[in-house]
Amino acid sequence: MIAEIVEAIKIASRSLMQHKLRSGLSVLGVVCGVMAVLAMIAVGEGTKEKTLKQIGELGIRNIFVKAVSLSDEQVQIARELLSEGLRFYDRERILSVVPDVEDIACLKEVRAAVISAVNIEFSPQIIACSANYASIQRLHISEGRFLNNQDIEGNQLVCAIGGDVAHKLGINGQIGKFLRIENELFKIVGILDRFYRDQEAITTMAIRNVNEMVLIPLGAENLLTKREEVQNIQSLTELIVLIKSAEKVFRAGEVIKRTLDLSHNGVKDYQIIIPLELLRQAQRTQRIFNLVLGAIATISLLVGGIGIMNIMLASVSERTKEIGIRRALGATRMDIILQFLAEAFMMTLMGGCIGIITGIANAFIISKVAGWKTSVTFPAIFLPLVMSVCVGLFFGLYPAVKAAKMDPIKALRTE
Amino acid sequence: MNFPVIEALHIEKSYLMGYSILPVLNGVEIRVERGEFVAIMGPSGSGKSTLLHILGCLDRPDTGSYHIEGHNVLSATDSELSKIRATQIGFVFQSFNLLSALNVFENVRLPFSYSRIEKGEARDRVENAIAKVGLTHRIKHRPAELSGGELQRAAIARALVIEPKIILADEPTGNLDSKTGIEIMNLFQKLHHEGATIIMISHNHQIANHAQRVIELMDGRIINK
After folding, report:
1. Given its phi and psi angles, is residue B137 left (phi above 0), alpha (psi -120 to 50 degrees) or beta?
2. Distance of residue B185 Cα from the nearest chain A Cα, in angstroms
3. Can you state the angle between helices A320-328 and A333-369, rounded to 10 degrees?
4. ipTM of predicted assembly, 2 dp
5. If you measure CA to CA, which chain B residue comes closest to A10?
6. Which residues of chain A make contact with B58, given a CB cutoff of 8 A?
7. Which of A59, A245, A395, B182 is a good FRET partner for A202, with 20 to 30 A between their CA atoms?
8. A249 touches A58 (CB < 8 A)
9. Which of B59, B82, B91 lies nearest to residue A332, judging by beta carbons?
10. B113, A412: Cβ pair inside 8 Å?
């Protein structure tokens, strides 16, 4: 059998070489199909990787509880219902009521400006946070140290600054220098690692851009706020609840929601974001995307396959005489089937290979021009290739069988 | 046991033409011994091509028996018939039937695509066959570059290469001028003297007379013995 297949491939490649243009044109459909499938898988994989990375940065064991700014009307209702927004007190409640909580970080956005010595347009976000913020969000310190509990308890005027902030401040952004925020001087004790976060993630997933932050100890912000806002002393912008294990996140999220509903008297002045849930959603979306992709791939390869069948039928009827001669010289029906199948197989394999090369080029161009992340993985190459070869064998079978079934005498008589 | 190379008895064959049955062969009996050179003569429509196709295992008779060296051919399956054609029967056609994409060497080698043979031996046998018909100087030429006589020589080499039990020639000089035709006949004579068994069909008396024995066919019956 192997000898026969080798022989069939020899004959087929010869016949393909004889009709280079025709073979080339007829595999065009397969080329386009494979190219499209590959490019789509590459884009899909790229998007998936990016989403997973973004969500991963939020931390899959975390639950974010964020204060929501209310409209005047809603504020009125909230007052009537005696809800005071997200407050430090909510942290205590969650800690005492919700099971499996490992730690909770508190964040408060401070509306104050950095007055820098060098006069540049410069407005980093000032955030008052608890000492565990760095560990929960896995922030890395490149120099110095992060804020600690002594800073918070002692109301120390210290700060840790983001990489971009340090960079913009230049020599004034070094450890031990002082940063002026409103009328107070904060000593810089730590500089955070500068790391890449694409702008899209910051906007779509509301990830804080740590690079442009100035972090001060929670409590210190009271020195910066104006007197009329002092009533908000206890309020918070964000709680990050770290759960002991990923499996318990959903249940904990549910309990947090109920707890806060109760203590806020039903006022929706907070929102709960669970990265793990976002991840699940992304995976569901990915599954739908894959399904659509599969359908498109099937259609395009089907079209390619019909093209192959068409040309194979033409080839069979054109070579009727040859089939007759080969049969007279001792070719069995199987030999003839193998010969034409090998031809279809080689055409689609060739088309598949060209498709892969152009597809990879395509994915590269897409990522350059459209700025989408693409990722050419092993299945992105292997899957369309296998599919195209299967298409070749499937659509080549009918013409091949047709050729083999010919009456050799009639085939010999044709001119 | 000494069987005749070919022994076909009571061969009947008819074709369905539209709604009527057209009998082509009516009880033909033919026996060919090893080393014979037999011509089958008859006008067109006498059934000689059909007989040749049956003898060449390309077609099956409706009734009758057919043995090659004592082996019953008619009980063979389609692929077994292919095997017989590949190893025991050499065809020579009126219109040569060489593949235009292949050169002389490749055309002559073609039967070995369908019978297992060691590569080096195949090459030797192909070269010998080509030498035997006197085409060694044309070995790398394509059919389009050859004359009619050369084409038929190449086709004969292709029939010889498998060292067949019988060579079946279907009007081998039909497409050639008379001078070339005689050359081809001389080649057949030479092969015959070297021991080949040849069955040739022709409607031309002069050509048929090159054979050792002439069988005349008329309306699907043999009219001389």
Report:
1. alpha
2. 22
3. 130
4. 0.95
5. B113
6. 327-328, 408-409, 412
7. A245
8. no
9. B82
10. no
Nearest to A409 among B53, B84, B87 (CB): B53
DSSP assignment of A132-197 equals THHHHTT--EEEE----HHHHHTT--EEEE-HHHHHHHGGGGSTT-EEEETTEEEEEEEEEPP---
Q: How far is B6 from chain A (nearest CA, A)?
A: 18
Q: Between residues 168 and 187 of chain B, which touch chain A (CB distance below 8 Å)?
A: none
Token duo for residue A84: 């005071």
Specify whether the CB–CB gap between B128 and B100 falls below 8 A: no
Per-residue pLDDT 10s for chain A (415 aa) are 788 888 888 888 888 888 888 888 888 888 988 888 888 888 888 888 888 877 777 788 888 888 887 777 877 887 777 777 788 888 888 888 888 888 999 988 888 778 766 656 678 888 889 988 888 888 888 888 898 888 888 888 899 988 888 888 888 888 888 888 888 888 999 998 877 665 665 555 566 778 888 899 988 888 877 655 555 667 888 889 999 888 888 888 889 989 888 888 888 888 888 888 888 888 888 888 888 888 887 888 888 899 899 999 999 999 999 999 999 999 999 999 999 999 999 999 999 999 999 999 988 898 888 888 888 888 888 888 898 889 999 999 999 999 999 999 999 988 7
Would you state the structure tokens that stand for residue A88, as one six-digit string?
């430090």
A278-283 contacts at long range (C-beta below 8 A, 24 or more positions apart): A278/A55, A278/A58, A278/A205, A279/A51, A279/A52, A279/A55, A279/A60, A282/A48, A282/A51, A282/A52, A282/A55
**Partner residue facing A408 (CB), from B58, B111, B114:** B58
CA distance A396 to A57: 50
